[in-house]
């Protein structure tokens, strides 16, 4: 009697792909959904990757033994020019690289106030460096290295040129948004309560409309049904659009929301503290390109 042993090996490969995108939620009157445990805001956008294969600059081990060295006459010494040192991005005494918008950023920051003493002379100094770094940290401009580059210039200009009188606030607390400059501020009884800060509204195809609205629903952390992402400090005011903390890098202008008013974390928290159902929201202008 023959005994046959059969051994079967099974190899299974499972691939799970997770994709997320920041966006707005449905109008509260249309119902809300979602379930399960909350996930950290922005977790869906975190993407990492690596490759074990050697890249073009990685050495590859030789497949054959190297040839044995042979004796040869020593070469005649030749004269060579020592390599020139690479230029540094900034004078070492300031601790900051100087950007192409130095004078303009110095001027705007001096106009805004609150970031330190600046001299609008177009030359980076230790005081300028510290002030620009403070500004960059406040508005989450990365990297916060004190360089007056394009993003720092753009944000400083938008904030410094925002005309808060365009928002017809009236009495009570009013949240104001300048869609053209992509800035927002808060007024109370006709006076500025929270100075202008940065925002990002609807991208092309999802334009955030101008007009006067009212906050009619709030949730410390709302689940967006259509886009499957958590929206921290959610305050809805019209057609599924509202304030919430951004789930992506706010200063990436190539993207935008699906109509919502994106805020930096500190601003989203402050707006949540000041807002309530019934608070007025006034939007003026129009985001360029929408």
Explained architecture:
The chain is α+β, with helices and mostly antiparallel strands and 290 residues long. Among the domains are: 102-160; 167-284, L,D-transpeptidase catalytic domain-like, CATH 2.40.440. The chain has 4 helices and 9 strands; from the N terminus they run αααββββββββαβ. The strands form 2 sheets. It has a 5-stranded mixed beta sheet with strand order 3-2-1-9-4, with helices on both faces. The relative contact order is 0.17.
In brief:
The chain is of the alpha+beta class.
Secondary structure layout plus pairing:
Blueprint: H1 102-112, H2 126-138, H3 150-160, E1 173-178, E2 183-188, E3 191-198, E4 211-214, E5 217-224, E6 229-238, E7 241-245, E8 261-263, H4 265-274, E9 280-284
Counting DSSP H or I runs of 4 or more residues, the number of helices is 4
Rounded to the nearest angstrom, the distance between the terminal CA atoms is 82 Å
Order of helix and strand elements from N to C terminus: HHHEEEEEEEEHE
CATH C-level of the domain at 167-284: Mainly Beta
Query: What is the strand arrangement across the widest sheet?
Result: 3-2-1-9-4
Sum up the overall morphology in one term.
Answer: globular
Main beta sheet strand tally, sense and closure: 5 strands, mixed
Do you know the CATH architecture of the domain at 167-284?
A: Beta Barrel
Give a quick set of tags describing it:
alpha+beta, Peptidoglycan-bd-like, globular, 4-stranded mixed sheet, 290 residues, LD-transpeptidase, L,D-transpeptidase catalytic domain-like, cell wall biogenesis/degradation
